[in-house]
Description:
Blueprint: E1 2-3, E2 17-19, E3 24-25, E4 27-29, E5 42-46, E6 56-58, E7 72-76, E8 96-100, E9 105-106, H1 110-114, E10 118-123, E11 128-132, E12 138-146, E13 151-154, E14 163-167, E15 172-176, H2 181-184, E16 190-192, E17 197-199, E18 214-216, E19 223-225, E20 242-244, E21 249-252, E22 266-268, E23 273-277, E24 290-292, E25 297-301, H3 306-309, E26 315-317, E27 322-325, E28 339-341, E29 346-350, E30 374-378, E31 381-385, E32 394-396, E33 401-404, E34 418-420, E35 425-428, E36 442-444, E37 449-452, E38 466-468, E39 473-477, E40 498-500, H4 511-516, H5 521-558, H6 560-593
Parallel strand pairs: 1-3, 2-5, 4-6, 5-7, 7-8, 8-10, 9-11, 10-12, 11-13, 12-14, 13-15, 14-16, 15-17, 16-18, 18-20, 19-21, 20-22, 21-23, 22-24, 23-25, 24-26, 25-27, 26-28, 27-29, 28-32, 29-33, 32-34, 33-35, 34-36, 35-37, 36-38, 37-39, 39-40
Antiparallel strand pairs: 30-31
Amino acid sequence: MSGTIPETLGQLNELVAVDVSENSWEGVLTESHLSNLKHLKELAIFKFSLLPDQTLVINISYEWIPPFKLKYLSLRSCQVGPKFPAWLRNQNELNTLILRNTRISGTIPDWFLKLDLELEQLDLGYNQLSGRIPNSLKFSSQSAVYLMWNHFSGSLPLWSSNVRTLTLRNNSFFGPIPWDIGERMPMLTELDLSHNFLTGTLPVSIGNLYGLMTLYVSNNYLSGEIPELWELWDGVPNLLVHVDLSNNNLSGELPTSVGSLTILIFLFLSNNHLSGEFPSALQNCTYLRNLDLGGNRFSGNIPAWIGRTMLSLWILQLRSNLFNGSIPSQLCSLSSLHILDLAQNNLSGSIPSCLGNLNAMASKIELYRYESQLMVLTKGREYSYRNILYLVNSIDLSNNSLSGGVPEGLTNLSFLGTLNLSINHLTGKIPDKIGSLQRLETLDLSRNQLSGPIPAGMASLTFLNHLNLSHNNLSGRIPTGNQLQALDDPSIYRDNPALCGHPITAKCPGDDETLNRPRGDDQDEDEDGAEVEMKWFYMSMGTGFVVGFWGVCGTLLIKESWRHAYFRLVYDIKEWLLLVIQLNLARLQRKLNL
């Protein structure tokens, strides 16, 4: 449905529940829509959208006191603000309050706290609320609290032990995570404290949260080592499936107790100061889909057992560490892998030719699947992917010490979007079948020792929008046509002394002769053709002039009656023009005399 909500809705005075969610409402809803609904217990106006264009405005007078007592109120993606709705000040029977994305600002009013509610769900997310959150809020069994994307500040609130879901991300909370959070809120199954200003260490009491399934504390300022959070779970089934501790200042080695997270699916530890060898305890995490250890100080070899025990991996990101040794060929067994990022390490040896067997990069995913969020380097920049992360196919082995050639098998990955092998010691030719990578958007082979010509098939890469072949030993004419016509930045081919042709200034052998050579047969033929065309042009123009001239003048010479009529017409036109000029002069003189 669309349009405005009619005021006649208020005439249905026996209504107990009103749910007009998931419609395209617009206009204004006032107290006149609700003033006769004395038995109303549930009200839901919801459109699943976080867009700023909220077409429905709920404009209820500050003084209005509703005749009903709601138990359930859900208003989403409609304008309720700018202030916290005052008409709720007598709604002391509420057990669910959802005011998500309603443009409310300011602080939570004191009168709301005095209602002494015991809520099953409190959702004030995606607003501009600020100030501190009092610890006096009460919640019933298995309750959920969503306060994300506001401006709340102060220390983290600790509420009753009944809270199961606590989402406080993207606020301005500061200070440490309470050391006793595991004892005070033992029923937590989802804890999201990411994107705040939290400091201190991870409390050991988190290990007491036996039912915890998701733990997000990324993008804070936490420091110290990760404690053996899960060593207390011995003999107790572990339910954690998503752990994100990325973008903090955590240090030390990953605790061995991480091996008890046997159903873990997502593990994000990037951009910390973690060290040590690749955690062997992760061998037990056989259900891992996304593993991101990038931006740390892990060292040693990349273990071959990844290809034997983590067969479900979608994403393996180990960039910006201190790993050395060769790339294990066992990684080729990861048939579901679609992002492989080993860039900025100390890896050596050749690129395994079997990487062309990574089937996920050679086929299209038809159905949406959730893969969390990841920063991916593509098109020369880092991009954050979330909703379409499952569609991103990338291999980045740049900035290592890899040698040997570019494996021909990589050209089998027909859905590969990014291939970055730059800043290595690769030799040999660019594979002739590089044109088979029809979905390739980014190709960076710069700063190697590649030689030979640029394959002509590269011109058929119609999706290619970032290309870098600089600082190699490539030779011959740069291919032209199709997509390469748009990639005309000379820096793409810089420091390849033997390359020639557009768009660089070096000319290929024969280019100057083509421009300056004496007229040859082809030029003579072209010019002969041009001369013939010009002759025909002049002949046609002369014929047209003769026919036109004698068609008029010849008739006048031969036909006396037509000749008299023609000159009479010329005489009459002359007399008419003189009369018009005289009349206009006379009018002008009269105006000047006035």
